[in-house]
Automatic annotation (TrEMBL):
Catalytic residues, chain numbering: 213
Cited Pfam families: Aldedh (PF00171)
Any one GO molecular function term: coniferyl-aldehyde dehydrogenase [NAD(P)+] activity
Family: Belongs to the aldehyde dehydrogenase family.
Protein name: Aldehyde dehydrogenase
Aldehyde dehydrogenase domain residues: 22-438
Source species of the chain: Polaromonas aquatica
């Protein structure tokens, strides 16, 4: 789409948002219900499109990780919306009484959404639903790496919404550059930290506030007090869901020195249980593109070249279909400190295992690196747990499991530092895309005149 097409779509939404500033509950509900119908009628087609884009990815995975999440978000939002939209009274200090004050919750206007390919339905429509609930108009730019899903989203949204309510624009990085240069009232970006920096710069030129949902390296700490088998299956599930292509997947494991072999064994058992075969197993997603597949293989080649030991876990072995880009889970022991594997987000089924000698050492390792999107801790020693929680800062945490904090509708979801800023889900998302306008209603009995000049003696009486 040419720049003029983008500008025309934006202008129509912008005009609409300035002429219809008040967006009543009934209209917001109607938009959310249209979204629900879209999902109800087209969930299966969307799951098929995702499968076609990945090559291998079971429709059930899309059902759980994309569609179920969106249905839950819609139900929660529809139920809570009347309360969220209400003005919020605030206490008024004595010197301003009997005036009263409240926060009026209003739409921001036009919200831009840029989404990635890994959960292409959830991460596109989740922010759109949140923006609509807050009364905004929305332009969505989904990923070019899932062309079938993105085209279907464009078609379905085009049928369900007027272009000045919600529209989808399709294109690659070049179009995305034009997109993020539009003077949105808010730009909601989900993607890599590298592109997040570019988006933040483009938005700053327009003073457009952003929400950046980025990536990074999420650590998983195994405490000496943990049950290794239980930890291993939960880590394997979180790591291998979508073949590691999950923003909050455990990126690496920190464990007490000496327990590497026990973890390797327990992890291999867990993989065999979850994925009796890898090649041809639709539950085990393919790597999204040849480029990402090559990137992951190169990480392993580099690590091995530098002396790391690589443990490939392919329980079904043989019968590989290399063209499917299904990459077997891999544990890596002894990776070099400056290897790419330990310094770049992995975003695939490779799990480096790093021993620590003391809890302090593990905490220092984490704190010497950019703040992670998620952190996981496994064990029963609550003193150790609380030390890790108190002395590390991350976007979110699940204790004794992986991923699950993202599924809690009352927990805000987002990053911190290089893993992003701003959070959404539940009321946090509604507020992120809402202007909370402070309003003071002055009473005729209010003594504002106490502060008028001439100050003279009266000043001392009032301030003293
Ligand atoms: P990406 O940053 O390459 O692309 C994301 C989107 O940005 C795509 O739609 C792309 O077209 C667009 N884009 C590319 N260049 C752009 C530019 N110059 N200006 C504006 N937009 C541009 O990310 P990806 O490969 O699609 O997704 C994987 C990354 O996303 C990983 O780092 C992962 O951790 C992260 N992620 C984060 C979350 C989260 O909620 N925090 C969720 C999923 C994925």
């Amino acid at each position: 789409m040419a720049g003029s097409g983008l500008a025309a779509l934006f202008d129509a939404q912008y005009r609409g948002s300035r002429t219809q500033v008040e967006v009543p509950l009934a209209l917001r509900r109607d938009r959310l219900l249209r979204m629900r119908t879209l999902l109800d009628e087209n969930g299966a087609a969307l799951a098929q499109a995702v499968q076609a884009d990945f090559g291998v990815r079971s429709p059930q995975l899309t059902e759980i990780a994309d569609l179920f999440v969106l249905r839950t978000l819609l139900s929660h939002t529809l139920k809570a919306l009347p309360k969220w939209m209400k003005p919020v009274k605030v206490r008024t200090p004595l010197y301003l009484q009997p005036s009263h004050a409240y926060l009026q919750r209003q739409p921001l206007g036009v919200v831009g959404v840029v989404s990635p390919w890994n959960y292409p339905v959830q991460l596109s429509l989740g922010p759109v639903i949140t923006a609509l609930a807050a009364g905004n108009r929305v332009m969505l730019k989904p990923s070019e790496l899932t062309p079938k899903t993105s085209a279907l989203l464009a078609e379905l949204i085009g049928k369900a919404f007027a272009a000045d309510e919600v529209c989808v624009v399709l294109g690659d990085g070049q179009l995305a550059t034009g997109f993020s240069s539009l003077p949105f009232d808010h730009l909601f970006f989900t993607g890599s930290t590298a592109v997040g920096r570019i988006v933040a710069r483009a938005a700053a030129a327009n003073l457009t506030p952003t929400t950046l949902e980025l990536g990074g390296k999420s650590p998983c700490i195994i405490d000496a007090s943990c049950d290794m088998d239980q930890a291993a299956i939960k880590i394997a599930h979180g790591k291998l869901l979508n073949a590691g292509q999950t923003c909050i997947a455990p990126d690496y494991v920190l464990l007490p020195r000496g327990s590497e072999a026990a973890f390797g064994e327990a992890f291999a058992k867990a993989v065999a249980k979850l994925f009796p075969t890898i090649a041809g197993n639709p539950d085990y997603a393919a790597i999204i593109s040849p480029g990402h597949h090559e990137r992951l293989k190169a990480l392993l080649v580099q690590a091995e070249g530098e002396g790391a030991r690589v443990q490939v876990l392919d329980p079904g072995a043989a019968a590989g279909r290399p063209e499917s880009r299904q990459m077997a889970p891999v544990l890596v022991f002894g990776a070099a400190a400056d290897s790419k594997l330990l310094n770049e987000e992995i975003f695939g089924p490779i799990l480096p295992v790093l021993p620590y000698d003391s809890l302090d050492g593990a905490i220092e390792y984490i704190n010497a690196r950019p703040r992670p999107l998620a952190l996981y801790w496994f064990g029963t020693d609550t003193t150790a747990r609380d030390a890790v929680l108190a002395r590390t800062v991350s976007g979110g945490v699940t204790v004794n499991d992986t991923l699950m904090h993202i599924a809690h509708e009352n927990l805000p979801f987002g990053g911190v530092g290089e893993s992003g800023w701003g959070s959404y889900h539940g009321e946090a998302g509604f507020l992120r895309l809402t202007q909370q306008k402070p309003v003071l209603v002055s009473s005729k009995w209010a003594r504002g005149d106490l502060f008028y000049p001439p100050y003279g003696k009266r000043f001392d009486q009032v301030m003293g």
